[in-house]
Design brief:
10 strands, homotetramer, globular, about 15% strand, alpha/beta, 13 helices
């Protein structure tokens, strides 16, 4: 690899490709694959998010990928949606807060590694989401999770929001573990006095239709967990995804899905035998911006 | 540490306690804490499972903990329940299968690290679970997930089954991401032609009652994921758990909850400021049997 | 796996063997292999140590393995020898010291994770090792590293010391990176005013003779680093080791030797094609005592 | 973070800085710190290398940093020097070789993760290094390791070589574990019939002089192992380094130095209390090129 001051992100990644081994090689192959699946008209692109991707600064990148039509389906933890709403409602993610966890608790500051949230932002969140839940139930009190999230997206007016942008663009958001989040908690508290049922298996029907209607599916997996499994497993009915990229720091030996090699998905027909699979070991807040910037530069270059 | 051939598990762990540092010290402290929370009449013990704990050989250990009244609440991925049923229906988990993932797929063998499953066992699973789903809907077609799982537990007759034993003992099982599993897939396929709605937020009511009714709560966390979050977050209404033990190979730096230090939960009031928290870094299929064998020997010794 | 209170360490490990997968299976296979190589008269057993194995509480276990003739060659970082001497000279390893690293520094306390050392112990160490260095140079001022370490072993009188026991038993200790340790630092300071040369490549001659004279070699590797490489690479001249066990938390993807799978050693003829190789992912202060206690119980049982 | 196609590496890293948390924040801070220590006339910059940095494609980047006067001292494993020589002598590092490790062995191909070496290149290496060793002993047969490496550097004529460039620029290379490498093995075989002694502690004198003569020291640590320890410990005599950056995938809990947080070095006076310390968790073949490209662009920009 040879470096030149002022080189573009893609030029750097192409140097990594010349080396072609270890992490550098993986990142190069992931970037190229990302560009190809985004560009391919026939490929439906899933993006799955676990871990603090929105608090970790990827909100705008994800929102832009949706806005530009590069991501067709989003699968996420409830937490990332909660944090998207937190920002949509005027809250923020903070850094450099002093104090140990006990002191933070007393100050009303929640910690995610070196990211901090404030309870006053959650108070605003609770109030605003309750208003939204009220509006939703005025029209309908039996929805699947995807419909519920689309309605929320239409009812907020932050152009930078993932939920809002996805609703505007018609990109479905699936969050099978939604209930296990601050948004889920508010939903449950709301249902103590209001009628609103989310059918746990209700999304599967439209998701399977979507998979059947897709000539090819590629999935980009940031972190593991339920979103990774859902992204892969929802493709089992058609023999598996055609391409997958995963970015993770988890490891494989103890058998958890989060750290599992993508190849394992082939044995379950969650990835096709001929599928293209690239794993990059690393922190998604470094690797994903690199990969996306590189892929987008590559798309412009190849026009 | 000094070793003697033929020493009991507890004697070994007590040698680790004499050293008291690194993993050895963590394991000793976790064992002692586990014994204390199991023994304490006032403490409700949650066990949360993510990763292949049942396929990984912990089924009987977990079942026995429930049977003996040592675990009061189980929170798990849908996958561990699917694999519990697979064994209840006569299937098994296999090892030493030759072939790469593409070859395994053609042989109908699904791989989880070095654990293998056979499609014929899943065929039996599908048939038997469908019969059970039919029986459940005869009585009721609107349940929360916990009720659904209890009913399944009553409808199978394997004494070694976690689901069955939990149903017999009145131990609730929560699986907030149930839908994202083979069991969830069968459920969805069943609902294509039958009426059966699982309310995604339906469990929260009884789980919060249970938390409010518990003078103290301790949670033992194997793996991370949704079950870890649910086990901690469900205690937020009462200021957090009083004790927690986690066993994981995930790491903390990228901010994912699975690898997060338990101390972080204090900032969110998911663990009380004065709570006792022990993390052991390691493979749960080694660490958990050690810890449970040690804690149970310690209980007998202290009688 | 089925647990019984009061079960011996071996009984627990045999339960892990019945499961046979993930960490449990690895630990069982490692225990059996350890027993076999220890028992086999024709196999020379190397033990390589990187990381804080002596500060981490394994000193007595390692010393006993040497005393009982179960380990034939020790390869270690200089740090583990420094800490063996620290204890031989009356010092200790401490736990539960309060303060951040800056405060510890001002108190003269050095930290290794949750292990603490005191500068007063190092002061004693410096004084005593200087006396020993003086005695060594009275007889000889040109040695290889192994000879130097044997001489130190003979000049201390702590029966619990690894260096002392190895010297008594004629077990060679190799420490190719010795100079990079407190012991190395003292050696260098001593040579400012005294004549004492350690030949960096001087050990290779006798180590290669030892390897050539061994019908079979097995190596047990705790941690990675230079000791791991040296233990494997010294066998390259005879086509590689016949068996190897490694215990590590390092991972393989970035290509560092410490996390490399043992299989990779086959490509370099550092492990024979037919060699038996087992890696256990975990903290050596948990895994190694388990494995040794299990192997020794198995030896007694099979008598 | 906001991405623009065609953005430079620095622009991308500055977006990461705006987020400022998790890996993105770490990378940004490391980049800024790297720029500052390189630019500061008073700071002596150490670079320590463990793991396959030369085979992993960083050879040219490291060579250029030396050539441009940005790195003042290099501390490395013997393996990275062996691989530098392998390339200097016309060999290469290969990728995409088919076969398992046993097959690779029979083909004479050594594997480092997904990097491959060929035995024919090592044959050339052996022949050429022997000629060089012969030339060195014509003049001198008692050297310290640094002198030995400088002489090799002068005796090869590859402008792209790290050893050659360092010799030309007067940048010292320290390799305390040199003997444990293919270069060390050749050295030992050479000494079977020739007189050439490398004094194991001989480097310490000049390295301590160098440290004492440096108003400030910063160390950049890729991987851990002996080079990390040596880079930090050699500064203990002056109270520790003033700044340090480490890039690693190792973890801290088991206490190995490779994964230890840099803060721990403060307790040992290997890093000053007021030192600036940044750790980036990741694969060095991705992180280091990013960081260097960013730092160099930042230097040009700030002119």
């Amino acid at each position: 690899m040879k470096l030149d001051p002022g080189m573009t992100t893609l030029q750097l990644i192409e140097e990594m490709g010349k080396s072609g081994v270890l992490g550098a090689g993986r990142l190069y192959r992931a970037t190229k694959l990302l560009k190809e699946v985004i560009e391919d008209e026939e490929t439906t692109v899933f993006l799955s998010l676990a871990g603090p991707m929105v608090p970790g600064g990827l909100r705008k990148i994800i929102r832009d990928l949706i806005a530009e039509g590069y991501v067709d389906v989003l699968i996420t933890s409830g937490a990332n949606l909660t944090h998207d709403l937190l920002e949509a409602f005027g809250g923020a993610h903070y850094r450099d807060q002093a104090g140990n966890d006990e002191e933070l608790c007393q100050m009303g500051i929640g910690r995610i590694a070196d990211i901090y949230t404030k309870s006053e932002d959650f108070t605003v969140f609770e109030s605003k989401i309750n208003t939204i839940l009220g509006k939703i139930t005025e029209k309908n009190n039996n929805l699947n999770i995807r419909e519920f999230l689309t309605q929320i997206g239409h009812l907020i007016d932050d152009e930078e929001s993932i939920l809002h942008t996805a609703a505007q663009k018609g990109v479905p958001i699936y969050a099978p573990g939604l209930i296990d989040s601050m948004l889920g908690l508010q939903l449950w508290m709301f249902t103590q006095e209001n009628q609103l049922t989310l059918d746990a298996s209700g999304d599967m029907h439209e998701l399977s239709d979507l998979v059947y209607a897709s000539p090819k599916v590629a999935t980009v997996i940031l972190g593991g967990g339920l979103p990774k499994h859902y992204a892969l497993a929802s493709n089992i009915l058609t023999g598996g995804v055609d391409a997958a990229i995963q970015v993770t720091l988890d490891r494989s030996e103890a058998g958890s899905l989060s750290g599992a090699p993508l190849e394992e998905a082939k044995s379950w027909a969650k990835a096709k035998c001929e599928s293209r699979l690239v794993t990059v070991i690393g922190d998604a807040t470094i690797i994903f911006p690199l990969m996306v910037a590189g892929a987008r530069e590559l798309m412009e270059k190849s026009v």
